[in-house]
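User: Sequence recovery, please. Input:
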């Protein structure tokens, strides 16, 4: 691979993917205002570099929930990696491991929890949705504990699936060879058939996602696992404080990549108020719109402990499988190190709001 930026890798991936798959990955909900905002808000911030600082030995390592990451970058949970590469999530977790980075494996993975764990050489967390059957959820939690996952990530912003118009127009459904193998096939029936004007993924969510989920349920889950519980989908100070009160070990500032409530604030906009609402040592992660090491540096300066990257990893898989995903993550890592050196802040811990200038909306 000779691409020098994530944009070039994206362009290469777009030429290789079927239209319906490409739009499933790229699309947001409704008018896609939040999807666009996730990207555009990074342009609001400029850097305030310091000079005459020794940057000869930059160090990107960070500690996160008991694990050491080689850089504050991880793979966001995304379903169905086999849509773009036959090896699926095992290729992704190997790619992250090459760089010592975090992988958050999705519940709707095409590889089993155990297969993914065997291939992991970096930190590994498991993402969950709250399904109507609690026994399914607790079964996945027990398997994750046995397989050696270090944390659980509960997605809390999806009581129903956003209105994703691209998928509806394409009648998106999973091809027969792509299945969520960690769930009973009977729970996944709706994902394999659809027609124009409908989405099999949305229909499956309507049938299986539990819309009664509340903070009481979060506390219930917290009591039933020894693993740290991370809540993904937090956008407000109010919910950040409740997450701390209900035993969460960390939160992910996320709007589901712009795929849920259209018009929800961009994650970079929400980040400062979430950080301000929680204790100083409470980890706040961010996903949404990270397309370069400078984007990652901006989020870290605004208080994120680690950033999670979604779509670019799938682009890398589509272009070059495991090597392509590793290329994406390596580029981000290298760009982040380069940015911190030129900022005169050679470690993530050196970053704070003073590294940024607000250029306006």
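Assistant: Recovered sequence (361 residues):
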């Amino acid at each position: 691979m000779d691409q020098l930026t994530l944009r070039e890798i994206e362009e290469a991936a777009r030429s290789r993917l079927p239209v319906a798959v490409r739009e499933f990955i790229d699309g947001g909900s409704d008018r896609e205002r939040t999807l666009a905002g996730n990207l555009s808000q990074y342009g609001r911030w400029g850097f305030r570099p310091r000079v005459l600082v020794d940057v000869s030995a930059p160090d990107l390592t960070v500690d996160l929930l008991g694990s050491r990451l080689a850089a504050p970058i991880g793979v966001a949970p995304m379903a169905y990696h086999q849509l773009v590469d036959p090896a699926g999530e095992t290729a992704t977790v190997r790619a992250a491991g090459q760089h010592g980075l975090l992988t958050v494996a999705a519940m709707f993975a095409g590889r089993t929890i155990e297969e993914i764990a065997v291939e992991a050489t970096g930190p590994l967390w498991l993402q969950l949705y709250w399904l109507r059957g609690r026994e399914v959820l607790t079964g996945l939690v027990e398997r994750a504990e046995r397989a050696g996952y270090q944390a659980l990530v509960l997605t809390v912003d999806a009581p129903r699936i956003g209105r994703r118009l691209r998928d509806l127009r394409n009648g998106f459904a999973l091809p027969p060879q792509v299945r969520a193998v960690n769930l009973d096939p009977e729970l996944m029936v709706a994902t394999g058939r659809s027609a124009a004007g409908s989405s099999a993924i949305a229909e499956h969510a309507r049938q299986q996602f539990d819309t009664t989920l509340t903070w009481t349920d979060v506390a219930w889950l917290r009591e039933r696992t020894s693993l740290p519980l991370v809540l993904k989908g937090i956008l407000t100070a109010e919910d950040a404080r409740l997450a701390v009160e209900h035993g969460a070990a960390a939160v992910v500032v996320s709007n589901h990549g712009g795929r849920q409530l259209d018009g929800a604030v961009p994650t970079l906009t929400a980040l400062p108020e979430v950080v301000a609402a929680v204790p100083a040592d409470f980890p706040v992660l961010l996903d949404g719109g990270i397309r370069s090491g400078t984007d990652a540096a901006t989020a870290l300066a605004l208080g994120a402990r680690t950033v999670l990257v979604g779509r670019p990893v799938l682009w890398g898989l589509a272009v070059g499988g495991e090597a392509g995903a590793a290329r994406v993550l390596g580029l981000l890592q290298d760009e982040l190190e380069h940015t911190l050196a030129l900022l005169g802040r050679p470690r993530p811990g050196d970053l704070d709001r003073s590294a940024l200038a607000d250029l306006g909306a």
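The longest strand covers residues 229-234.
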